Amino acid sequence: MDVLHFLFGVFGNATALFLFLAPTITFKRIIRSKSTEQFSGIPYVMTLLNCLLSAWYGLPFVSKNNILVSTINGAGSVIETIYVVVFIIYAAKKEKGKILGLLTLVLAIFTGVALVSLCALHGNARKLFCGCAAAIFSIIMYGSPLSIMRTVIKTKSVEYMPFFLSLFVFLCGTSWFVYGLLGRDPFVAVPNGVGCGLGALQLILYFIYRDNKGEAKKPISAHSLEMGPEKVYQEKQLVEQV
Questions:
Q1: Distance separating alpha carbons of residues 194 and 139, to the nearest angstrom
Q2: Which string of DSSP letters, residue by residue, matches 137-168?
Q3: Which residue, 3, 29, 53, 114, is most buried by CB atoms nearer than 10 A?
Q4: How far apart are CA 213 and CA 36, in angstroms?
Q5: pLDDT digits (tens, 9 = 90+) for 213-230
Q6: pLDDT tens, 61-103?
Q7: For residues 93, 86, 199 and 150, what is the CA-based torsion angle, rounded to 10 degrees?
Q8: How many other β-carbons are positioned within 10 Å of the β-carbon of residue 241?
Q9: Burial classification of residue 227, based on how many CB atoms lie within 10 Å of its CB (0-12 exposed, 13-18 middle, 19 or more buried)
Q10: How far apart are CA 66 and CA 212, in angstroms?
């Protein structure tokens, strides 16, 4: 059981790392053009909060036998911080102020959770408090592609929903779901069970509509799954103009 628990944790680390690195395509474009164009920085700031809370929850003094949760989310925190910094550097003044404000709020929330858990809570109460906070934001992160799924159903086309990102959302959610079950940890199992289910729905939609992609288009970036349909449409229009 312990070996399986460890193996699923390692596999979860690998699949989650792929998801964290997927937006590098978008940021290469931002750096090259020295502009954030129509991209939104909100998903990266919110993913940073999720990574911080999950990394904190996985630490031994919060929850036992979850160090693999901390390793990948610690790495994710570093990666998302780089994304946010790059976005702020190249964002327009108004957008820069909005993202800085949201980043301040995110850091305040994480600091508050960390301080309360350290100073006011102990044992199971600490695990419960940190686990609930991490689980809530994990579900929010996994739920972000819902708008894209709605667009796929509406347009009957998967051009806005890259297959490999959908696949790795499913694999990541599944591996951490099983990891949580084996470790009898509902704060890991429940949000990743949601991720597993949403990933499976994305794959089902892909296979239903895979032969109906419309006219040949230039590919859009991996940022697609993190953006609303309006932003995705704007990105597609920008790519077609290049």
A1: 7
A2: HHHHHHHTTHHHHHHHHHHT--TTS-HHHHHH
A3: 53
A4: 27
A5: 554 444 444 444 444 444
A6: 999 889 999 999 999 999 999 999 999 999 998 889 999 999 9
A7: 20
A8: 7
A9: buried
A10: 43
Residue with tokens 């999720």: 50
Q: Which of 9-13, 19-23, 187-191 has the lowest mean pLDDT?
A: 19-23
Cα–Cα distance measured from residue 10 to residue 114, given in angstroms and rounded to the nearest whole number:
26
DSSP state letters, the chain: -HHHHHHHHHHHHHHHHHHHHTTHHHHHHHHHHTS-TT--SHHHHHHHHHHHHHHHHTSTTTSTT-HHHHHHHHHHHHHHHHHHHHHHHHS-HHHHHHHHHHHHHHHHHHHHHHHHHHHT--HHHHHHHHHHHHHHHHHHHHHTTHHHHHHHHHHT--TTS-HHHHHHHHHHHHHHHHHHHHTT-HHHHHHHHHHHHHHHHHHHHHHHHTT---S--PPPPGGGGGS-HHHHHHHHHHHHH-
